Amino acid sequence: MAEQTFDVVVIGAGPVGENAASRAVEGGLTAALVEHERFGGECSYWACIPSKALLRPGNLLAAVRRMPGIEAAERLDPLAVFARRDAFTSNGDDTGQVDWAKSAKIEPVRGHARITGEREVTLDDGTVLLARRAVVVCTGSVPVTPPIDGIGEIPVWTSRDATSASEVPARLAVIGGGVVGVEMSQAWARLGSSVDLIATGERLLPRMPAFAGDAVAEGLRADGVRVHLRARADRVSTVDGSTRVELADGGYVDADKVLLATGRKPATADLGVDVVGLTPGSPLTVDDTGLVSGVDGEWLYAAGDVTGRAPLTHQGKYAARAVGDVISAKARGETVDAVPWSRFTATADHHAVPQVIFTDPEVASVGLADAENDRQRVVDLDIAVAGSALTADGYTGKARIVVDTEREVLLGVTFVGQDVGEMLHAATIAVVGEVPLRRLWHAVPAFPTISEVWLRLLETYGL
Question: Any idea which GO molecular function terms this record carries (predicted)?
Fold first, then answer.
């Protein structure tokens, strides 16, 4: 068998793996980056990038329709939308990502990697990669298949199919009321599909404040999506050439395509983690430096969705930067000061995770969604300021802050409305920096912008 040795071997060449490898190399180490599909990973080809490329044209068209005096197109041109999406995904060609890795002095390696021993990774062609310092797992996550009778007997869409399809299904049934479910329901409805969204909960986006799920449901219904709440898909079958989704209440939905948007799980099932005493299919539990728990020798690290901590691309990249810095610092003999908020820790994973849901209206949040004890206070407010009125006729939106009343700092912020995603980083800085509200009062929002709502929130709190 061929054998190669590097300081660091990174398994998984998505954005998370790229960051781990590049930080290790910048720290003076050699690194191999192993990928069995496309370099660039899920985000680049099947998730973040293509999904937002599908959503953005519809959001812009809706925004134009809220503005008088502008002649807008009646509908989207699906072929043009697909072409723009494909341009962003390089038509599935990862040559650019491979070239980037080489330019960053990272060794790209194609193959399915499995851990076969301490600091040892073996590819499906028999090649053995040895790591002097560390192996870093950045394999991401895979879709969860729900326990629905008949689900294994018919072809269904996963999120990959939903973001890469180039034909508009006449009828689309979406099972799942989380982020993927709501985003893809709206994207395909605006491209021309007749969409049914089936969700088991009382509202969409159950991890968000109630007003966020309600607002998104209203936005979906305005686009013609039939939203089925408190509905459970019990069985799927083929009836007269269509796929029938039978619901627990006796109703059913017929569709040409069915999208399963029922969550994801860490991709560890075929990674060889059992060799080091871990359970295949389970998340890799890590500390804030990314060191995997339960493995002797301090050589196995992980970052991103595979850890189950904060399954978002930006959080995975953030954690990966810490991992790369930790490994390279230890290799230089430096003491790693793994205290909160150091460059060696992914501290924000615990309570300052930002997220944007790119529906119309958008949902942007960071930190707590609601109060968790009597020392915390929630302030809710309609977004009704000069900036929002100028942004769109009939602008509707809401804002929430969660305040630690003892320290008077923000613990969480949520915005819902058109174009609120770009307001999120200011909120993230306030939460991460624990900016006192009395100091935040002096961060004067520019007039006339939607950010004026910050002033109204602080006034409502009592400043």
Answer: dihydrolipoyl dehydrogenase (NADH) activity; flavin adenine dinucleotide binding
